[in-house]
Amino acid sequence: MEKTIKTYCGICESTCGMQVTVENNAVKKVEGLKEHLRSKGDLCVKGAAAKDILNAPDRLRSPMKKENGTWKEISWDEALDLLAGKLNGVKEKYGASSLAVYHGQTYLKNCLAMFMMKRFLTIYGTRNLCSAASECFIPFLLGGIATFGSLAFADAVNSRCVVIWGSDPFSSGNMVGCNLPRTIRIFNELKEKGVRFIIIDPRTPAVARLADLHLKVRPGTDGALALGMMRVIIDEKLFDAEFVANHTSGFGQLREMLRDYDLEKVEKITLVPKGEIQKAARMFAASPVTVLSTRPIRSRRSGRSISCSPLRETLMSREGTPSLLPPSLRLRGLRASLHLKVNRSG
Fold this sequence. Notes:
The protein is built from 13 helices and eleven strands.
């Protein structure tokens, strides 16, 4: 008997809506769920291929052990005994901290699996757990927590100027909290409505065709560029001084630090011309702005660069306009960060 199940895709955090047709306990068809609030019937290529992935002939369905250069299927009991013996041997010989676990993206999105892995490592005695997110999402998350108290999300749909920093939402990722096809459609619609785009990327990504301004920053110098843009906004008084005085801390220290980042110096560091930095900062400050970045700054400077990211993102906040921050976080993070507010006359 055929039936339709409404569910969602768990491959990534977008959790796009899915409509799955099942017959005799077997998946027959996978489609996007049109009534889903965010994805509205769209699925990326991975979600659309869910049925093929599920039924792939080379999918691993049981433990395998290599003997004499050939993979051989073994039972779960044998596999667990083998792993336990090996892990105990490593611990006895080298200590518990000699074990490190690296896991992939799909595993990371499975909260139960993540919890069980952490429990296992705690019992074993090691803290060495990492993943693809260790150099991507987690620095971005920690930057948001340090600045706002939680992860902040951009409101692209209601913006008049969109900054895409080191990302190509036309090739991968989910820039507006939904899948790739939906993201492309939203950005194209925004461009047709007259929304301005600033692209910051040393490459020329596919999304650059939307750009009103494209800054080709030298790799690894994103933090300096963000400081240069803040220098322009502060020097030209494109912020609400009363708001900063009443609701932020550290503004004096920031202004003092920015004295070391005049635009001539920033141009030498980033290879972005001074005039383009000024133009980007003014365009940024003149509109309700959304900065969209899928954690692209991956280097030994990533922590510092990503810490600058929330500061430049909060420049968009105005009364009566969409905020980057969810309402519960708009005041919570002010004690921990500089929150600049753009003048209406900007």
